[in-house]
Each structure stands twice: as structure tokens, then as C-alpha cells.
UniProtKB/TrEMBL annotation:
Family matches, as Pfam families: Toprim_Crpt
Name listed for the protein in its UniProt record: DNA topoisomerase III
TM region(s), chain numbering: none
Domain of life: Bacteria
């Protein structure tokens, strides 16, 4: 809020954005507040365990975070021109939201017709993906794109010099053990495609020490041989710890603890 004038309360752009982010989440629901109050009473009366309440809270917070992330991805570019990315075609205008497309502010003045549709291959792009296209020339891997036959696929979107969009289909990482197969998703783990053909048994579990690894962390393990520091691992005694994961030549994983440089084999 802007309280420059003590008699008037002005809502800032940041405040408006925050309201949009929590819109549609249980965070703004009076029902969830009432439920939490009831749970606290139940704990006080001994009819509910504190750990059950904490598990409920954890699940609810996860749902709220997911919803906020969705809202964050679809929040419009800020209205101020200085906040919008520069037009990659004319270099003079700014790219702003124009409904179904993001287009250049110089269209009426100079005729610059640069634009990017919000929805490509039946997938609505997030603001970050659109900004990456404009500023970097391409996105990361975009999942949930659909063909004319309604089949889902993933691809990198690349902005061509003429303003058209190309699909680049990413390759799976090469197996670091046999050097022939590719590493693909196999449910609870990622493993080599050559298992049936040559018996290559290279694999990495997605969850290590009760921590589910991100796609980037798995890719770092496969291609670089180790990750950065990862927080949220849990020991057998359920104590949290942070560590770097290092892949050995035999495929086993070591924990590296930066503070003392000791390694613990998994």
C-alpha cells in the first residue's frame, strides 16, 4: 500500500499482483481458517494428534504453493512499459499484453507487427516462457504441447529471425555407463534404454534419503557426475540434512557434506 497521502490508501502494483497470486487458493477462504481452529480445539481436547494436524497443514501449504505457482505463470506483464521486455524486431517498442497475443507498442507508430500468441500448440505459455522467447530467443523444455491429433509432446520453443516459432525436440541424456543408451523415465527411477539389449543396469532412483530429486538434479548427476547442495534429505532417524550428491563410476551415489568434506556412501 502507498500511504504517501495520509488520507488516501492507494493499492500498489505489487499489492495487486499479490492479490492475483493468492486468488482462488484456500488461503483466502474462511472455511480453511475455521477448519484449522477446529483442529486446534480437537488437539486441545485430545481427540486429534498434533502430528495429524501438521500433516494436514503441510498438504494444504503444498496445494497453495502449486496454485500460486500456476497464478504466477499466468499473471500478466506489468502495465508499465519499463517493466515489459523490449521488442526484438524494432528495438524501440515494448512487448505488452494485447489479449490473445503479446505484441509491440510501436505497431501504430511504426507498423512493427512483432507478436507472440499466448497459446501455442494448445498450450498457454507462462509469462516466463514468453519472456524467455523474447529476450533469449528460446524457452526451456515446454511440456503439455499438443499436436493436431491431440497427442501431448514436449519441446523447446525457438524464436526465428522472421518472428515464427520453431519446435526443437530435446534428446534424452546419454547413458554415462555404456555410452550407447539413453536415460529415460522408468517410474520410480531413471535408467538406460539398453537394459534389455545389452544388460546395461545404470539407474538412479528419483527419491534418495526421502528427498525427491528435481529433473535438473537428476540431469546434473547423469551429465556432470554431481549435484549442487541439496536440502531436505532425511536420515534413518528422520533428521534433516543437506548434502551434495556425487555419482561414482559404478553407479553408486555418495553424499558429500560441504562443511567437513566427508563422504558417505549410499
Amino acid at each position: 500500500m502507498d500511504l504517501t497521502d495520509k488520507k488516501i490508501v492507494n493499492v500498489t502494483n505489487t499489492g495487486i499482483s499479490l492479490c492475483k497470486l493468492v486468488e482462488g487458493t484456500s488461503l483466502v477462504s474462511h472455511v480453511i481458517t475455521a477448519n484449522w481452529e477446529k483442529s486446534l480445539k480437537d488437539i486441545e481436547n485430545g481427540t486429534m494428534k498434533g502430528v495429524e494436524f501438521l500433516m494436514t497443514i503441510e498438504k494444504e501449504v503444498t496445494n497453495i504453493n502449486e496454485k500460486i505457482t500456476e497464478n504466477l505463470d499466468t499473471t500478466e506483464f506489468k502495465a508499465k512499459d519499463e517493466d515489459a521486455p523490449s521488442c526484438p524486431k524494432c528495438k524501440k517498442g515494448k512487448i505488452i499484453n494485447k489479449g490473445q497475443v503479446f505484441g509491440c507498442t510501436q505497431y501504430k507508430e511504426t507498423g512493427c507487427d512483432f507478436s507472440i500468441f499466448k497459446t501455442i500448440a494448445k498450450k498457454e505459455l507462462s509469462n516466463k516462457q514468453v519472456r524467455d522467447l523474447i529476450e533469449k530467443g528460446q524457452t526451456g523444455v515446454v511440456k503439455g504441447l499438443k499436436s493436431k491429433e491431440d497427442k501431448e509432446f514436449a519441446a523447446i520453443l525457438k524464436l526465428k529471425a522472421d518472428g515464427k516459432i520453431d519446435f526443437i525436440f530435446p534428446q534424452n541424456p546419454m547413458c554415462p555407463k555404456c555410452k550407447k543408451g539413453e536415460i529415460v523415465d522408468k517410474g520410480k527411477l531413471v535408467g538406460c534404454t539398453q537394459f534389455n539389449e545389452t544388460g546395461c543396469d545404470f539407474s538412479i532412483f528419483k527419491t534418495i534419503a526421502k528427498k525427491t530429486l528435481s529433473d535438473k538434479q537428476l540431469l546434473d548427476l547423469i551429465e556432470k557426475g554431481q549435484t549442487g547442495i541439496i536440502k531436505g534429505f532425511k536420515s534413518k532417524e528422520d533428521k534433516e540434512f543437506a548434502a551434495i550428491l556425487k555419482r561414482n563410476k559404478d553407479g553408486t551415489i555418495n553424499f558429500i557434506f560441504p562443511q567437513n568434506s566427508k563422504m558417505q556412501k549410499r
